[in-house]
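User: Can you help me understand a structure? I only have the sequence.
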Amino acid sequence: MAKKIVRLTEADLVKLINRVIKEQTAPDPTTFIKECMMEHVNLRDITKVPTCSAIAMEVVMSKKLPTDVMKGVKCAQELANAVGQDPFTAMGKIAAIGECLIEKAKKTGKMY
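Assistant: Let's start by predicting it. Here is the structure, written out as tokens:
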């Protein structure tokens, strides 16, 4: 492969460096999910609740709560089994976790 010489202006180089720094320092979305789960239901292992994790990832990406009721019910069942609560109590925690995720995503400004 032949080497190419690319000419960059100082402004282009600054933009490139800032972009690389921003991409390297962007927080991992699973960190937010774990923090919010711990805050509201004392659950460290998010692999026990895959539906909730998928919903949480949607919340982090879109910064709004999803409206799919069936996913919410399945998440509540998984959460109830994982933390030993009844599904209705777990359902109430889901909204709190979602709000927590949205708040953390908005505060950092570095989310997707």
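Now, to help you interpret it: The mean pLDDT is 79. Residues 87-108 form the longest helix (22 residues). Let me know which part you'd like to focus on.
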